[in-house]
């Protein structure tokens, strides 16, 4: 597991946060955002209960999918920053969200993305005139400190749900608890959260775990100790600087990246709690274990909607989103347990039904597959969902592409969607 570099870092110095959300700016921004990402087809399908049948093809849309409130806000703020600081250089720390199409759009607007590997070096060269957008995932405290030192203006789009996790892990550090964070150590959000887990004084500790195998290993160590060197080798840099499993697993608090699979996070919480109880006894364990579920509402709604959709018969599932999007990845994991599931970035991945380019979570690479179900002439029901960072226009393109490949032209699909969405007289 690769991971964040964890040098002690106190809470960020005062940053020059600017409010770009004035009513005049936001009115124009929202109109611009709509032109880029709106979909009339998706709106009509939602009005019609999420189902559209034309010929032998039925599309079933999940109840909740696509842009969440945090992503909508982040995009609005980035567009507003560009507008308000039209004559200044506007930088973005990495990606605003994990969707290549949205990031491409921001680049076309002149917003300069600083790749993660160059954050520190590039930020150190900025001037007070420069503007830095912090993405929805937030940023590590050491980066916020550099931005403050350089005197740049900051447009902070960090989602409120992410900040709730920070509040929790800071609290753990204050009480002398190590944060066990369920997440991907290299993910921007988890890096930002890990830096807060070191507390305001920078002397707290964290351990990031991803799989249930990791959790079982940690639980064994909590119960009966183990080989310290092996532990540190296994978790590499997924731990805070100076982390010692013999000392820092005594009092633990569990938190999670906001976009994890809920069932897995709950299992992790149960296993760690049980390990602490086995070691300390139920009464003492209450002093040494804390938990706080920090999966965000939007992630949960998208997962629950997919479970609901899977209760009805479906032949194939298409999940649309960025391949590095954590919440989208979990939708794919849920789907592929039940039926043939294709994780596609855009409609362009559907070159034909014998040439579907999709991301394989297990290979961690794109591959090309064939779908018998979609290619034939038999009636087919296709489920469609999308991660929290996927705009509606990409979902629309995907639906249209499925119909077109099955012989139904776009105009016919749009007309039928409008018809089924119309109120019954
Ligand atoms: S997925 Fe959740 S945490 Fe992330 S931006 Fe959306 S609402 Fe916020």
Automatic annotation (TrEMBL):
Sites where the protein binds (2E)-4-hydroxy-3-methylbut-2-enyl diphosphate: 98, 187, 258, 325-327, 389
The answer, when asked if DNA-binding is one of the entry's keywords, is no
Question: What Gene3D superfamilies does the entry give?
Answer: 3.40.50.11270, 4-hydroxy-3-methylbut-2-enyl diphosphate reductase, catalytic domain (3.40.1010.20)
Q: How is the cofactor bound?
A: Binds 1 [4Fe-4S] cluster per subunit.
The prosthetic group or cofactor this protein requires is: [4Fe-4S] cluster
Spell out the catalytic residues. 189
What keyword terms does UniProt attach to this protein?
4Fe-4S, Iron, Iron-sulfur, Isoprene biosynthesis, Metal-binding, Oxidoreductase
What CDD domains does UniProt report for this protein, alphabetically?
lytB_ispH
Q: Which reaction does it catalyse?
A: isopentenyl diphosphate + 2 oxidized [2Fe-2S]-[ferredoxin] + H2O = (2E)-4-hydroxy-3-methylbut-2-enyl diphosphate + 2 reduced [2Fe-2S]-[ferredoxin] + 2 H(+); dimethylallyl diphosphate + 2 oxidized [2Fe-2S]-[ferredoxin] + H2O = (2E)-4-hydroxy-3-methylbut-2-enyl diphosphate + 2 reduced [2Fe-2S]-[ferredoxin] + 2 H(+)
Q: Which residues bind dimethylallyl diphosphate per the record?
A: 98, 187, 325-327, 389
Biological process according to GO: dimethylallyl diphosphate biosynthetic process; isopentenyl diphosphate biosynthetic process, methylerythritol 4-phosphate pathway; terpenoid biosynthetic process
Question: What is the E.C. number?
Answer: 1.17.7.4
Q: Name one GO molecular function term.
A: 4-hydroxy-3-methylbut-2-enyl diphosphate reductase activity
**What top-level branch of life does the organism fall under?**
Bacteria
Query: Which pathway?
Result: Isoprenoid biosynthesis; dimethylallyl diphosphate biosynthesis; dimethylallyl diphosphate from (2E)-4-hydroxy-3-methylbutenyl diphosphate: step 1/1; Isoprenoid biosynthesis; isopentenyl diphosphate biosynthesis via DXP pathway; isopentenyl diphosphate from 1-deoxy-D-xylulose 5-phosphate: step 6/6
Q: Which InterPro entries match?
A: LytB/IspH
Q: What class of enzyme is it?
A: oxidoreductase
Record keyword DNA-binding present: no
The entry marks the following residues as binding [4Fe-4S] cluster, namely 68, 159, 296
Report residues binding isopentenyl diphosphate. 98, 187, 325-327, 389
Q: Which PANTHER family match?
A: 4-HYDROXY-3-METHYLBUT-2-ENYL DIPHOSPHATE REDUCTASE, CHLOROPLASTIC
**What does the protein in this record do?**
Catalyzes the conversion of 1-hydroxy-2-methyl-2-(E)-butenyl 4-diphosphate (HMBPP) into a mixture of isopentenyl diphosphate (IPP) and dimethylallyl diphosphate (DMAPP). Acts in the terminal step of the DOXP/MEP pathway for isoprenoid precursor biosynthesis.
Regarding protein family, the annotation reads:
Belongs to the IspH family.
What protein is this chain from? Answer: 4-hydroxy-3-methylbut-2-enyl diphosphate reductase
């Amino acid at each position: 597991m690769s991971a964040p570099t964890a040098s002690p870092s106190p809470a960020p110095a005062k940053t020059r946060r600017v409010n770009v959300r004035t009513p005049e700016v936001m009115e124009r921004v929202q109109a611009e955002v709509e032109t880029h990402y709106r979909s009339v087809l998706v709106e009509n399908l939602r009005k019609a209960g999420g189902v559209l049948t034309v010929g032998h093809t039925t599309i079933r849309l999940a109840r909740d999918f696509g842009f969440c409130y945090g992503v909508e806000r982040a995009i609005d703020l980035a567009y507003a920053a560009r507008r308000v600081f039209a004559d200044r250089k506007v930088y973005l720390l990495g990606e605003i969200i994990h969707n290549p199409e949205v990031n491409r759009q921001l680049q076309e607007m002149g917003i300069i993305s600083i790749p993660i590997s160059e954050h520190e070096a590039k930020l150190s060269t900025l001037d007070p005139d420069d503007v830095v957008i912090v993405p929805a995932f937030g940023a590590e405290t050491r980066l916020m400190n550099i931005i403050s030192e350089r005197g740049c203006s900051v447009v902070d789009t960090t989602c409120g749900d992410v900040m709730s996790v920070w509040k929790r892990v800071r609290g753990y550090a204050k009480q002398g608890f190590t944060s066990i964070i369920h997440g991907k150590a290299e993910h921007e959000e988890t890096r930002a959260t890990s830096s807060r887990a070191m507390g305001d004084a920078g002397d707290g500790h964290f351990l990031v775990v991803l799989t249930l195998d990791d959790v079982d290993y940690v639980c064994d160590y909590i119960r009966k100790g183990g080989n310290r060197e092996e532990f540190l080798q296994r978790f590499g840099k997924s731990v805070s600087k100076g982390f010692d499993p013999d000392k820092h697993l005594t009092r633990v608090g569990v938190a999670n990246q906001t976009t994890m699979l809920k069932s897995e996070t709950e299992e992790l919480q149960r296993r760690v709690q049980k390990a602490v109880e086995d070691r300390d006894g139920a009464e003492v364990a209450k002093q040494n274990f804390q938990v706080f579920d920090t999966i965000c509402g939007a992630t949960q709604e998208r997962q629950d909607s997919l479970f609901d959709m899977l209760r009805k018969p479906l032949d194939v599932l298409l999940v649309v989103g960025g391949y590095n999007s954590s919440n989208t990845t979990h939708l794919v994991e849920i789907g592929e347990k039940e039926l043939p599931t294709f994780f596609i970035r855009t409609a362009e991945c559907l070159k034909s039904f014998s040439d579907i380019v999709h991301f394989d979570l297990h290979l961690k690479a794109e591959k090309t597959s064939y779908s018998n179900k979609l290619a034939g002439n038999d009636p087919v029901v296709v489920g469609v969902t999308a991660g929290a960072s996927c705009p509606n226009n990409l979902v629309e393109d995907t639906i249209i592409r499925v119909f077109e490949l099955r012989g139904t032209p776009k105009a016919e699909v749009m007309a039928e969607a409008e018809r089924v969405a119309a109120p019954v007289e």
